[in-house]
């Protein structure tokens, strides 16, 4: 489900397969005076997508490519980025966002490449599952750094050019864990809750600038996320969604300028119950798990 939102709206460009060129947003002001010209100028709208080597980010990249966008694809695994880019108008910008300067270097490389970023999809992320009392300190730092800090730094680097251009959209990939708090995913839940609060605050700050913020809130999604964190998804509910359904929700939110997108849509319900009646939510949780 997506919700009507504030900020900019993109008219979905016409599918180039049908002959028409996609519309490019106005690049005015995206570069400062005296900046070198972009190395890859394009009249297509430009999306910088992190986490594009796998799962949700890769599916989102394919969706934007199908809509005629130019893609700046980031992840660490270059060969998987190449797979995502196949057949698309795309440039690969491999980057380790866990490195201290990773976000800044990626943003600089992206803006050098095209001179503007119309949409940032911040999809890179990792999980960790297990009792909090056993979580190594290094893993606490790793999850918080990649899922929260690196994302905020990347937005900080990309935002001024969007604001100068008077349009753009930041898409943050949160999680239902950040809305309700999931047992044995305490740090991951905290990181995603941080993203949700950041989205809300930033959206208010950006009112009137033409730049919007979308928080995508997926439940479980069938990706390598669970294998990578070392614990499979083992709950009966909610049933995992496909990465392409999340990509569809991202596209819909961007093209309609929506603030939130829950996947599947009914996940708004537990988030609302917890927000409105936390006592009831906990009783239901204790009873039904
Ligand atoms: N799967 C779910 O159930 C689920 C549910 C809710 C929210 N999410 C969120 O959705 C986002 C995407 O997850 P996914 O399910 O698509 O998982 P995934 O298939 O494991 O993809 C994770 C992506 O993050 C990138 N990444 C990991 N560490 C990185 C680093 N240090 N620097 C740069 N990129 C890095 C990976 O790139 P490389 O492979 O190239 O390293 C990969 O492209 C995450 O933010 C996750 O928290 C997932």
UniProtKB/TrEMBL annotation:
Keywords: Oxidoreductase. The keyword Oxidoreductase applies. It holds the Pfam family adh_short. Residues 45-224 form the Ketoreductase domain. Residues 16-34 have a biased composition (Low complexity). InterPro entries: KR_dom, NAD(P)-bd_dom_sf, Sc_DH/Rdtase_CS, SDR_fam. Residues 1-46 are annotated as: Disordered. Belongs to the short-chain dehydrogenases/reductases (SDR) family. This is SDR family oxidoreductase.
